[in-house]
Amino acid sequence: MLLYAGRTAYVCWRHLAEAVREGRNQYLKAFGIPSEELFSAIYRSEDERLQFMQGLQDVWRLEGATVLAAFDLSPFPLICDLGGGSGALAKACVSLYPGCRAIVFDIPGVVQIAKRRFSASEDERISFHEGDFFKDALPEADLYILARVLHDWTDAKCCHLLQRVYRACRTGGGILVIESLLDTDGRGPLTTLLYSLNMLVQTEGRERTPAEYRALLGPAGFRDVRCRRTGGTYDAVLARK
Ligand SMILES: C[S@@+](CC[C@H](N)C(=O)[O-])C[C@H]1O[C@@H](n2cnc3c(N)ncnc32)[C@H](O)[C@@H]1O
């Protein structure tokens, strides 16, 4: 994670003042890559892609079980982790809920590395699916996990993605959003505010309050939205179809 921070995040943070003034990420200045293609900048070489995947997955070894236990997920036998990267969270999921199967959905370049280099692919309860979650058909499932995905995108793109998830979701199924939640008034916690600034310099998105997640999930069709703070870095929001 530190290597990723040094080679990518820090390069963007050098342009913090412009990011704040312009209200957008700084990939063009940092890497000469247009802001709409944020994952092209992060994945600008196979080495960088692998490093990002390794850096991101480590937190789930520490906090995966806590965040997945925030709600009882045992009623959901088939779980699809959208933007699931290396499959580390899916691995934590099948270990906590042995009766479930998990599909890890991500873009082809990430799925191919996940299968070659990460251990989730050795678990027969976990399968991988390549695709673009904004365009391609999503696998049918009982529960969709979106962990650190919505914070990458604008409200408009989140709405589009959530509508697609709602359509693919089995009746009675649900969605679990895993993010670091801002306080109701948006003025803390400090770590989450710093993450939000990190999202400004690196993505199109930001961290959000529970009310802001409700405002995205409700219009997409989801009901019964419940938010749980875990006391750790990441929190959980569960909603039902
Ligand atoms: C910030 S990472 C989070 C990864 C993982 N969920 C986690 O929490 O460790 C966002 C993930 O979304 C994936 N992603 C980005 N755009 C995507 C798209 N259009 N379709 C599918 N996956 C995408 C990225 O490859 C990456 O794995």
TrEMBL record:
Signal peptide: none annotated. The keyword Methyltransferase applies. Residues 13-223 form the O-methyltransferase C-terminal domain. GO terms for molecular function: acetylserotonin O-methyltransferase activity. It is an enzyme of class 2 (transferase). GO terms for biological process: melatonin biosynthetic process; methylation. Gene3D superfamilies: Vaccinia Virus protein VP39 (3.40.50.150). The keyword NAD does not apply. It comes from the Eukaryota. InterPro entries: COMT-like, COMT_C, SAM-dependent_MTases_sf. Pfam families: Methyltransf_2. Pathway: Aromatic compound metabolism; melatonin biosynthesis; melatonin from serotonin: step 1/2. Its EC number is 2.1.1.4. Keywords: Melatonin biosynthesis, Methyltransferase, S-adenosyl-L-methionine, Transferase. Transmembrane segments: none annotated. Homodimer. PANTHER family: O-METHYLTRANSFERASE CICE, PUTATIVE (AFU_ORTHOLOGUE AFUA_4G14580)-RELATED. Catalyzes the transfer of a methyl group onto N-acetylserotonin, producing melatonin (N-acetyl-5-methoxytryptamine). This is Acetylserotonin O-methyltransferase.
